[in-house]
Design brief:
Blueprint lengths: L1 E6 L2 H11 L6 E6 L9 E2 L7 H11 L3 E4 L2 H6 L1 H7 L4 E2 L7 H4 L1 H10 L7 E4 L2 H8 L6 E5 L8 E4 L2 H13 L10 E5 L4 E10 L3 E3 L4 E2 L2 E3 L3 E4 L4 E5 L5 H21 L5 E11 L2 E8 L6 H6 L6 H10 L13 E8 L16 H5 L4 E5 L2 E4 L2 E4 L3 E9 L2 H14 L13 H7 L1
Parallel strand pairs: 1-2, 1-4, 2-3, 4-5
Antiparallel strand pairs: 6-9, 7-8, 7-9, 10-11, 10-16, 12-15, 13-14, 15-18, 16-17, 18-22, 19-22, 20-21
Helix pairs in contact: 7-8
Glycine binds next to loops.
C-alpha cells in the first residue's frame, strides 16, 4: 500500500512514523515533508496553498490513501477534489471542515445541537460588536472567524479593548487579512484538554486525551505559540468523564453534521475547557493536533492505517484501537526568538544519541537536510517524544533525550506536564 501524507510539521512526521509501522504499507510519500520525515518517507515538493498542484501530485503519485495533515488544504477542499477524482483520502470535506474554518459556523452549530460552549455573539460589523459587548462582562474573548494559525483569539480586559481588537480583525490590521465575521465570547476558566476522535461520518472512536502547553514561557506565561509540549496520561480524564465528553460532545457533533448533510469523516479535535459547570467546547479543529499527535501515536499499539481506512470506508467500529497504558510526553525544542522572529540554518547535533534513550522518538517539526547535515528550518524545530509507564517516566525520558541535542539558540520549556504533576501532589 502506498500512502501520501500532505504536510511538513511534527504532526506529519509522527503520522509518517505510525504509518510506516503498518505491515500493509510499502511506500510513504510526504509532501512537502521536512529533514526528519525525509529519513522515513520520500519527500516531494508541493505548495499546500495550491489546490491544483496538490491534486496533480496525487494524480501523479497514485497513492492508495492520502492523509491530510494541516487545516489549510482542508479549507481549500482537497478532500472533495481527490474524492471527485475517485481517490481515497482521509479528512473532512470542505463543508465539514467548517467546524474549524469558521468559528461562527461552529458556535451556531454547537448552539443548534445543545452542545456545551461559552456564550457568544457572531458579529458582521464594528457596530454589531459595540452592541454585543454590552452583553458580556470583561474579560471578553474576541475571535477571528477564519483560520488564523493560532493568532485569532484575543482576551480583552475591557469593552474598549474588545471593540479595538474586533476592529483590528475587520480591517486586517491584526492578522494581515480582513475578517468578514468576528465572534465575541464569554471568558471561561479551567484546564484545557484536547479530546481527539476519529469519525467515519457516523461513528466516533476517541483517541487518548492530551493536554497542550500553548504559551512560550514556563508557568504558562508569555505569548501563544503553536504548542510547546503536550502530555497524555491515563489520569488526565477518568473513564466516566471521557464517556460524558464522548456522548455529550463528540457523538452529537458527528450526528449533527450527518443530519445536516455535511457528514464529518476524519479527526474531530474537540478543544475543551474543563470548567466548574462541566466540559465546554472552546473550539473544534478538523485535523490531528500538533503536537498532540506526537504524544498520541507513541501510545498506539494497533495499526493506524486500519483505523484511518475504516474512517474512509465508513466502518470505524470494525477497527478498534488499542493503546499502551501509562503516559507519554512531547517536549518541543524551538528556535531562539520563536514565536517572534528567528534565524534558520543552524546545525542540529546529538540526534543519534538522543534517539538511543529508551522509549524516545524524535519528530522533526522545522528541520531541513543540507548536504548530509540536519539544520533548523522553522520556529518549532523538534518534538522530543517519549512513552513510559508513568508521566514522570515519560517526561524523564524526553528531557534525558533533549539533554543530548543542541543547536544555536535552542529553547524548550522544562515544565511540560506541570499541571498534571501539580494535581497529583
Ligand atoms: N495543539 C493545537 C493545535 O493543534 O491546534
Amino acid at each position: 500500500m502506498k500512502v501520501l501524507i500532505l504536510g511538513s510539521g511534527g504532526r506529519e512526521h509522527a503520522l509518517a512514523w505510525a504509518v510506516t509501522r503498518s505491515p500493509r504499507v510499502t511506500e510513504v510519500v510526504c509532501a512537502p515533508g521536512n529533514g526528519g520525515i525525509a529519513q522515513i518517507a520520500r519527500p516531494v515538493s508541493v505548495d499546500l496553498k495550491d489546490l491544483a498542484a496538490m491534486a496533480r501530485l496525487a494524480e501523479a503519485e497514485k497513492p492508495d490513501l492520502t492523509i491530510v495533515g494541516p487545516e489549510l488544504p482542508l479549507s481549500l477542499g482537497i478532500v472533495d477534489e481527490l474524492q471527485q477524482r475517485g481517490m481515497r483520502v482521509f479528512g473532512p470535506t470542505r463543508a465539514a471542515a467548517m467546524l474549524e474554518t469558521s468559528k461562527g459556523f461552529a458556535k451556531r452549530f454547537l448552539q443548534r445541537h445543545n452542545i456545551p460552549t461559552p456564550n457568544y455573539a457572531v458579529c458582521s460589523s464594528p457596530a454589531e460588536v459595540e452592541k454585543a459587548i454590552e452583553m458580556f462582562h470583561p474579560p471578553i474573548v474576541v475571535k477571528a472567524d477564519g483560520l488564523a494559525a493560532g493568532k485569532g483569539v484575543i482576551i480583552c480586559e475591557s469593552r474598549a479593548t474588545a471593540a479595538e481588537a474586533a476592529q483590528g480583525l475587520f480591517t486586517g490590521a491584526l492578522l494581515g487579512s480582513s475578517e468578514q465575521q468576528v465572534v465575541i465570547e464569554e471568558f471561561i476558566e479551567g484546564d484545557e484538554v484536547s479530546f481527539l476522535c476519529l469519525s467515519d461520518g457516523q461513528h466516533v472512536a476517541p483517541l487518548i486525551a492530551a493536554q497542550d502547553h500553548k504559551r512560550i514561557g514556563e508557568g504558562d506565561t508569555g505569548p501563544n505559540t503553536g504548542g510547546m509540549g503536550v502530555y497524555s496520561a491515563d489520569s488526565l480524564l477518568d473513564a466516566a468523564m471521557s464517556d460524558w465528553i464522548l456522548n455529550h460532545i463528540a457523538v452529537p457533533t458527528v450526528e449533527g453534521m450527518a443530519a445536516e448533510e455535511t457528514p464529518f469523516a476524519g479527526v474531530l479535535y474537540c478543544g475543551l475547557m474543563m470548567t466548574a459547570r462541566g466540559p465546554q467546547v472552546l473550539e473544534f479543529n478538523a485535523r490531528f493536533g500538533d503536537p498532540e499527535t506526537q504524544a498520541i501515536v507513541v501510545r498506539l499499539e494497533s495499526d493506524l492505517i486500519d483505523a484511518l481506512e475504516a474512517c474512509v470506508d465508513g466502518n470505524l467500529l470494525d477497527a478498534p484501537m488499542r493503546w499502551a497504558p501509562g503516559a507519554s510526553a512531547c517536549v518541543v525544542a524551538s528556535s531562539g526568538g520563536y514565536p517572534g522572529s528567528y534565524k534558520n540554518g543552524f546545525p542540529i547535533t546529538g540526534l543519534a544519541a538522543a534517539a538511543q534513550v529508551p522509549g524516545v522518538q524524535i519528530f522533526h517539526a522545522g528541520s531541513a537536510q543540507v548536504g548530509g547535515q540536519i539544520v533548523t528550518a522553522g520556529g518549532r524545530v523538534l518534538g522530543v517524544t517519549a512513552a513510559a509507564d508513568s508521566l514522570d517516566g515519560a517526561l524523564a525520558r524526553a528531557y534525558q533525550a533533549l539533554a543530548e541535542i543542541s543547536f544555536e539558540g535552542m529553547y524548550y520549556r522544562r515544565d511540560i506536564g506541570h499541571r498534571a504533576l501539580g494535581a497529583a501532589k
